[in-house]
Design a protein that fits this description.
Blueprint: E1 25-26, H1 27-37, H2 42-48, H3 59-66, H4 70-76, E2 77-78, E3 91-94, H5 97-102, E4 110-113, E5 119-120, E6 125-126, E7 138-139, H6 144-159, H7 162-182, H8 195-220, H9 230-242, H10 250-271
Parallel strand pairs: 1-2
Antiparallel strand pairs: 3-4, 5-6, 6-7
Helix pairs in contact: 1-2, 3-4, 6-8, 7-8, 8-9, 9-10
């Protein structure tokens, strides 16, 4: 009895033109760029390199059609079939348009970037959230405070664990929102939605977060019985760093009490 040979699966030839994947590039972004480079339908190629049009691209099939080594495909692309990594907590954003144009790339290149990479310092362009398309990228040449805050953000990311930095940024936004309401500043950027408001509030958010992170160890673990009045000290430092004149110390007092409560709870748990 004759045996039935299995029908061959997947592509077996490379496309005429290839393109190099970027580190941390979304697999769908690379597939789309490869399709455009070869003047074929994006959806046609997506279905050609995956089990279905809605499935993730297979690294071996994508390597075949692109002519790129499979190891390069696996090491650089995010969101391939078989990758257990969840994409829900990652930030998919278009890379700097000027950087790409200088490489001869005109279409968007979407990469999954760390949360602290929010601007291209070389070309002074905002590429962070909530930027979703190339037109969202803002020119920062006339915004020195935003550029300086971006450098501080990167330094904080090197110095502190991601969970601590994320918490400090959330606390900073909470404090700014409290002040905007208590000072009746309805037009404050922190209360507005949209890209421009987010960028306008960014320098103050980073300045406050940096101040909180610097002081937090001394708040949670006092070194002497007599400690300074930290809420007042923090308020003065924040006003100095942001160039503001906030007077309501309430959100700072709440933050200090919260951090001390967490520290005590952690100490008690370790003793049990």
């Amino acid at each position: 009895m004759a045996t039935t040979r299995p029908w061959p699966e997947g592509p077996h030839q490379r496309l005429p033109r290839t393109t190099t994947p970027f580190a941390s590039e979304a697999a769908t972004s690379y597939t789309d760029r490869l399709a455009r480079a070869n003047h074929i339908s994006v959806y046609t190629l997506r279905g050609h390199v995956a089990e279905s049009c809605s499935a993730r691209p297979r690294p071996d099939w994508l390597a075949t059609v692109s002519g790129q080594p499979e190891q390069v495909i696996r090491s650089r692309l995010v969101g391939l079939a078989g990758d257990p990594t969840s994409l829900k907590q990652k930030f998919r954003r278009p890379m700097c348009q000027v950087c790409m144009a200088r490489k001869g790339i005109r279409e968007p290149v979407y990469c999954y970037l760390p949360a602290h990479i929010i601007m291209c310092h070389r070309h002074r362009r905002w590429i962070g959230p909530p930027a979703h398309v190339l037109d969202d990228q803002i020119d920062l040449h006339d915004r020195p405070r935003v550029l300086s805050a971006g450098r501080t953000h990167q330094r904080l990311a090197r110095q502190y664990p991601e969970v601590d930095l994320r918490a400090a940024l959330g606390d900073a936004r909470h404090i700014l929102v409290f002040w905007a309401h208590s000072e009746r500043r309805a037009a404050a950027a922190i209360l507005q939605s949209g890209l421009q408001a987010h960028v306008a509030a960014y320098p103050d958010v980073i300045a406050i977060a940096a101040t909180l992170l610097t002081i937090r160890p001394r708040i949670e673990h006092p070194s002497t019985p007599t400690e300074p009045a930290w809420p007042t000290v923090l308020l003065d430092r924040i006003n100095e760093r942001t160039g503001s004149g906030h007077e309501d110390v309430t959100p700072i007092e709440q933050w200090v009490q919260h951090r001390r409560l967490i520290a005590r709870s952690s100490t008690d748990a370790n003793r049990r």
